[in-house]
Write a structure and sequence with these properties.
Blueprint (H helix, E strand, L loop, with lengths): L3 E10 L2 E11 L4 E5 L6 H8 L7 E6 L2 E2 L5 H8 L2 E4 L11 H12 L4 H14 L15 H13 L5 E5 L7 H18 L2 E5 L3 H7 L2 E6 L2 E6 L1 H5 L4 H9 L1
Parallel strand pairs: 3-8, 3-9, 6-7, 7-8
Antiparallel strand pairs: 1-2, 1-4, 4-5, 9-10
The structure holds adenosine-5'-triphosphate and magnesium ion (MG).
């Protein structure tokens, strides 16, 4: 059994099926990249895994614990073990970088002031942005926002990370830098991760395995080499267009 195990996951909105029968496993310490065309339900899938959207049926096990139908208090506890980098970084625009990073720590009320400051400084150093501590999000470039988003997602030291399009909207060089940073953080913290991306260059850097979501099911799962060698028409079209 993997760290993340998804079986027969189904979800519809207003009677329209989005995920029809999704099956996925991610082993501990590994990174699965999910590819797929726009609107296929990749973000919906991540939101299901972190319990922000409830599935209609199926199973999602995190470290062996079933989260579908879990009571809210247990779900909240489990969510503490997960970090989520939202599509577009989603920083709180009215808070400084310091405020953004402190927020998840203060909400948990586990650390004293000195520990909070030390943790914030450490995270900023990890993403190479110590000097940005007193800046507001509006003063940051897209790449810097992603880095701060990463720092914030990792500040509570999660075991599991979910990334929604970590490089979208960035130039190829900044995108590559962010991908290497993700890869480095993954290794350093032995994170189990799922990353959604359209960026094949990013997938090459961070993925152990890749899965393609199409029409509500996983139509391909394997290594990047397996994907390149696939004879499936949709997979070939997908790679050709990437
Ligand atoms: N909360 C919601 N209520 C109703 N419909 C939703 C909701 N969230 C997503 N959808 C619908 O589900 C479908 C999949 O959306 P999703 O955001 O998962 O796509 P995606 O694969 O992440 O696309 P992109 O690559 O553009 O980010 C879309 O048709 C969207 O309109
Ligand atoms: Mg999305």
């Amino acid at each position: 059994m993997g760290m993340i195990d998804i079986r027969h996951l189904q979800i519809s909105f207003d009677g329209v099926p989005i995920l029809r029968d999704v099956n996925l496993t991610v082993e501990k310490g590994r990174t699965l990249v999910i590819l797929g065309t726009s609107g296929t339900g990749k973000s919906v899938l991540l939101k299901n895994i972190i319990g922000l959207i409830a599935a209609d049926s199926g199973s999602i096990r995190i470290g062996g614990e079933e989260i579908i139908g879990m009571d809210p208090e247990d779900l909240y506890k489990l969510r503490r073990r997960m970090g989520y980098l939202f599509q577009g970084a989603a920083l709180y625009d009215w808070m400084s970088v310091r405020g953004n990073l402190e927020f998840p720590l203060r909400r948990r009320e586990l650390l004293d002031e000195g520990e909070i400051i030390a943790r914030v400084t450490e995270q900023l150093r990890l993403v190479g942005l110590e000097d940005a501590i007193d800046k507001m999000p509006s003063q940051l470039s897209g790449g810097m926002r992603k880095r701060i988003g990463l720092a914030r997602a990792l500040i509570t030291r999660p075991e599991i990370m979910l990334y929604d399009e970590p490089t979208t909207g960035l130039d190829p060089i900044t995108g590559r830098d962010i991908s290497h940073l993700i890869q480095h953080l993954q290794e350093q913290h032995t994170l189990t991760s799922i990353a959604v991306t359209h960026d094949i260059a990013c997938a090459r850097i961070i993925a152990d395995r890749v899965a393609i979501l199409d029409k509500g099911v996983i139509c391909f799962e394997g290594t990047l080499d397996d994907m390149s060698g696939s004879t499936d028409t949709f997979v070939k079209r997908f790679i050709a267009a990437a």
